[in-house]
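Shift notes (night). Ran DnaJ-like protein while the centrifuge was going.
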Amino acid sequence: MSEILYRWHREGAPAFDAEHAWSGLWGAEYSADGSRTQCRTCDGTGEGWRDCPRCHGAGGDCSRCEGAGVIDECEDCDGEGWQDCVRGFSACWSAAELHAYITAHAGTPDDAEGRVIVFEGRVAGTGFDGEPCAVPQRVIEEIPWSELVRRTQA
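Came back to this:
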């Protein structure tokens, strides 16, 4: 089922189309296809000492840590340096909701920083802040941020 949604799409983000419809944490560095973000915990290195989750640091004959009791990999990304994104672009149900969401996370963007896209899409999941994530099917209109502000204050 298609829904009408609102999204602020920053300049330089992957193309606004179904193929690139992925969402990650604010400020994360995306992979070339946009489906993964660099792990913030290890800064993409995949490194991070921690007690072995299988033997809880005891070591011995543990096959997971090879007896060391510790593992040299980031717990959040399992040593890959990258984390999977959520399918769909983060979006909001209304212009007013988008205005509140973006100003809370990014302040007041300049028109040159991106554009507001009103689109028809299929909700594919929930983002990291509880927002709907949707795969676009049709763009209804694209407007500058200043126009969204004007509409929400009218």
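The longest strand covers residues 114-126. The chain has two domains: 2-35+85-153, 37-84.
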